[in-house]
Specification:
By secondary structure, the chain is α/β, with parallel strands linked by helices. It has a single domain, classed as Leucine Aminopeptidase, subunit E, domain 1 (3-Layer(aba) Sandwich). It has five helices and six strands. It has helices spanning 33-42, 44-57, 93-110, 130-147, 161-171; strands spanning 4-9, 19-24, 65-69, 77-82, 115-118, 153-158. Helix 3 packs across helix 4 (130-147) and helix 4 crosses helix 5 (161-171). Bound molecules: adenosine-5'-diphosphate.
């Protein structure tokens, strides 16, 4: 089955997909940007789940992912992944960013999700150049989908026009 892969300019917290991905930080205790928007809209149940994960495994490393309830969001799950902070491009940022997408999709599959929405991880306060991040994001998602069946839809959610144009450009290349 062919998976639909598309860009959408939207607020990720509003999407009725099986799992939305959060660009979290390693503490999993919430933050600004998309993280703040997801916790605000989803309510305290998400943070409660995050606290349980922290108690068990002590946070989440860069490139890795964990899954929680979506609280009162229309999605079923929130997958929290920690993007790399941009540091000039020679600190394995691309590899770590690709791991975020791959590990999130892996966790989605393991939890029976067939539709997943991603934000443009690391392109906010973590400072990853937008065009570069778009290339890594799309390549990582495509590579995963080539090796895994059963995902119906992956949406790359862009909050702003610049990310939307960048993702569209890579998808149409
Ligand atoms: P990071 O720390 O990984 O850079 P940010 O949350 O600062 O995370 O930004 C990641 C991306 O998420 C940015 O492109 C930002 O514009 C976008 N973003 C912010 N709020 C939302 C939202 N509600 N839905 C989707 N994307 C969002």
């Amino acid at each position: 089955m062919q998976t639909t892969l598309q860009a959408l300019q939207a607020d990720i917290a509003k999407l009725p997909v099986d799992a939305i991905v959060n660009a979290a930080n390693s503490s999993l205790m919430g933050g600004g940007g998309v993280d703040g928007a997801i916790h605000r809209a989803g309510g305290p149940a998400i943070l409660e789940d995050c606290r349980r994960i922290v108690a068990k495994q002590g946070g989440c490393k860069t490139g890795e992912a964990v899954i929680t309830t979506a609280g009162r969001l229309p999605a079923k799950f929130v997958i929290h992944t920690v993007g790399p902070v941009w540091n000039g491009g020679h600190k394995q940022e691309a590899e770590k960013l690709a791991n975020c997408y791959r590990n999130s999709l892996q966790l989605a599959v393991e939890n029976g999700c067939r539709s997943v929405a991603f934000p443009c991880i690391s392109t906010g306060v973590y400072g990853y150049p937008i065009a570069e991040a778009a290339k890594v994001a799309v390549a990582s998602v495509k590579a995963f989908l080539e090796e895994n069946e059963g995902m119906e839809s992956v949406v790359m959610v862009c909050f702003d026009g610049e990310n939307y144009e960048a993702i569209q450009a890579v998808l149409n290349a």
